Amino acid sequence: MAMVAKNALKQQLLRKAIRDIKIGKGMKVSGLVESMSRMGGFSGQHLYNGVEITKAMLENKDSFNFLSFPADIVSTGLRGVLAGMVKHFDAIITTGGMLDHDIARAFGGKYCVGEFNADDNMLHHLGIYRLGNVFIEQKEYGVKVEDAFTRIMGKICKESGKKEFSASALAFEFGKEIKDRGSILRQAYLHKVPIYNPGILDGAFGTQLTLFSQTHDLNLNLIKDELALSNIAFDNKVTGALMIGGGISKHHVIWWNQFKGGLDYAVYMTTATQFDGSLSGARLTEAVSWGKVKEKAKYVTIDGDATIILPILAAALGLT
């Protein structure tokens, strides 16, 4: 490498000096995140980058934007943040258990703060489920979902006369019947944001759907939503995604976007390691090799807990 080129590269790599963060009294979240723009290491810098990419993505009126997340965080207080974010996106992709937790809580299900190191044998004897450090009494989960499902599904079939539904159509119909404005399903219904749920059968809602179909002329059309996602990919030149956690919800976003040449904007939050070869652990740079994220896309992977990162990102951008 010629000396001139070497010096130019060196100056380019060292162009930004790290600046100390100064916490002021009454400092706004947006101000805190802005001060992280020159903090350097480690995930804090990625959080700032993620906020900037999400902002650019949402401000681009030509971009069709996805929000994806798994079910577990819907059992936490993060449900309220997600519900507030719904209207800022064009489509949601999630997992089967999201319906379980959102419906149970929409109809009064009491979820409690617990602890990771609880005695699970004792909890089982007491009839308490543990989801990480969330405690759920059995009657507050399964029974709530079963009662709500039976009542609402019966009403839907009777009033609509339909015998076939896609997963997104079911989510829309349930959102229509839910009155809790803190519900993700309700907010999606109010703002006409489709919820695609490729794993809808994996959970309490899916089990109830299966049992219901044994006594009713009901068919679940999963292909219809796949075709809708295919159309989104081929009909939109620019797409973006805020992906929380991995698994099927993340993969469905990046899978369909590969057919348009990849995402133009992508922000991914994860606590998983990439060294087990899992989708959840795979960084977005790996998705570039598959053409699921464009080589020149604006993208970042933020390593960390979504229950910490997402509220900060949402508050900084005013996604309420």
In words, what does this structure look like?
With 320 residues, the protein is an alpha/beta fold. 48% of the residues lie in helices and 18% in strands. The protein has helices at residues 3-13, 29-35, 43-59, 78-85, 96-106, 120-126, 142-160, 167-177, 184-190, 204-215, 222-235, 247-257, 284-290, 306-317, and strands at residues 63-68, 91-95, 111-113, 128-131, 134-137, 164-165, 195-199, 219-220, 238-244, 263-270, 293-303. The chain has a six-stranded parallel sheet with strand order 7-2-1-9-10-11, with helices on both faces. Helix 12 (247-257) links the parallel strand 9 and strand 10 (263-270). The longest helix has 19 residues, at 142-160. The protein is globular. It starts with a helix and ends with a helix.
* Computed CA radius of gyration, to the nearest angstrom: 22 Å
> Considering DSSP H and I runs of 4 or more, what fraction of the residues is helical?
40-55%
Topology as a string of helices (H) and strands (E): HHHEHEHEHEEHEHHEHEHEHEHEH
Number of helices: 14
Average pLDDT score: 96
Order of neighbouring strands in the sheet with most strands:
7-2-1-9-10-11
Oligomer: single chain
Structural class by sheet pairing and helices: alpha/beta
Number of strands: 11
The portion of residues forming beta strands comes to 15-25%
**Largest sheet descriptor:** 6 strands, parallel
Q: Segments where pLDDT lies below 50 for 5+ residues?
A: none
Q: Which outline best applies?
A: globular
Distance between the termini: 51 Å
